[in-house]
């Protein structure tokens, strides 16, 4: 199948498919005229790539274990586990940071409201 057909079937832009190829995540065959030719398995491969991107992993990280995931379909690939743990730590740190920012903003709003003259209009 051609790149446009793969894009249509997967809902992924042609530009993204070319990027996945650049990153070594997809390897189409090249016809004599230079056109890319994708195997029917490319659909599953693209959906798998999208899944891991939506988990917040980078294309570089995905490239490190994609072959295992595609080869073992149902089985869990051990090399993914450290990435999952690392991503969870990263998310936990972001939550801590955002919680601190939220508290700071709430404190500032409260202090402004306390200092406000009772006759003034309420803040939005």
Report on this structure:
- This protein folds into two domains: 1-73, Multidrug-efflux Transporter Regulator, Chain: A, Domain 2; 76-124.
- Helices cover 64% and strands 3% of the residues.
- The protein has five helices and two strands, in the order H-H-E-E-H-H-H.
- The model has no long low-confidence stretch (mean pLDDT 89).
CATH class of the largest domain: Mainly Alpha
Order of strands across the biggest sheet? Answer: 1-2
Which shape, going by the Cα principal axes? elongated
> What composes the largest sheet?
2 strands, antiparallel
Determine the strand fraction and express it as a percent band: under 5%
Domains, number? 2
Task: State the low-pLDDT regions, or none.
Answer: none
Reported by name, the CATH topology of the largest domain is Multidrug-efflux Transporter Regulator, Chain: A, Domain 2
Give the integer mean of the pLDDT values.
Answer: 89
- Listing every helix as H and every strand as E from the N terminus to the C terminus, the arrangement reads HHEEHHH
List how many beta strands DSSP finds. Answer: 2
Structural class by sheet pairing and helices: mainly alpha
Q: What is the overall number of helices?
A: 5
Rg estimate, integer Å: 23 Å
Distance between the termini: 55 Å
Short account of what is shown:
By secondary structure, the chain is mainly α.
